[in-house]
Amino acid sequence: MPTAVGRTCWVIAEGYIPGNSHGTEPQMTSHETACILNASPTDAHIRITLYFSDRDPVGPYRITVPALRTHHVRFNDLDDPAPVPRDTDYASIIDSDVPVVVQHTRLDSRQSELALLSTVAFPA
Predict the structure, then answer these.
(1) What is the spatial distance between Cα 110 and Cα 97, in angstroms, rounded to a whole number?
(2) 1 within a domain of the structure (yes/no)
(3) Average of pLDDT values for 108-124?
(4) What's one Pfam family here (predicted)?
(5) CA 118, CA 92: separation in Å to the nearest integer?
(6) Inter-residue contact 24 to 92 (CB < 8 Å)
(7) How far is CA 113 from CA 28, 43, 117, in A?
(8) 105 lies in some domain
(9) DSSP conformational letter for 28
């Protein structure tokens, strides 16, 4: 039987979605992604809150990651309670009711020589 791994709170201190992209959509659309692994035997109820340098936080965005599954959350697709702004620096706190693992990925395709980065989020 699988065991839960990870933490219930994760931080991505650096977020940014470029306002334009180069290449075919949706594959090459510039984006930020939180890759969430739920290795526990129960569903994970995720809450994402965004923080900005010049305005109040926005959230929570709510996502469910089923038990024993992974889910890649494109921040570009988050729109409730508000769309994630483009060309704006932000940070995020990801809370879960069961331990999960979060990896942060960004695709910046503003030019044809695109950039891709990926790192494990900070386990708080």
Answers:
(1) 36
(2) no
(3) 60
(4) ASRT
(5) 15
(6) no
(7) 11, 39, 13
(8) yes
(9) T
Report the number of distinct structural domains present in the chain. Answer: 1
**In angstroms, how far is CA 102 from the centroid of its own chain?**
8
- Contact (Cβ atoms closer than 8 angstroms) between residue 110 and residue 20: yes
Residue 116 contacts residue 105 (beta carbons within 8 Å): yes
φ and ψ at 52, to 5 degrees? -125, 165
What is the model's pTM? 0.85
The pLDDT score that the predictor gives to residue 6 is 95
Banded pLDDT at 115 (limits 50, 70, 90): low
Radius of gyration of the chain (CA): 15
From CA 65, how far away is CA 45, in angstroms rounded? 7
Angle CA 121–36–31, to nearest 5: 75
Per the rule left: phi > 0, alpha: psi between -120 and 50, beta: everything else, 115 is: beta
- If one compares 122 and 111, the residue with the highest pLDDT of the two is 122
CATH number at residue 74: 2.60.290.11
Identify the domain containing residue 27 by its residue range: 7-123
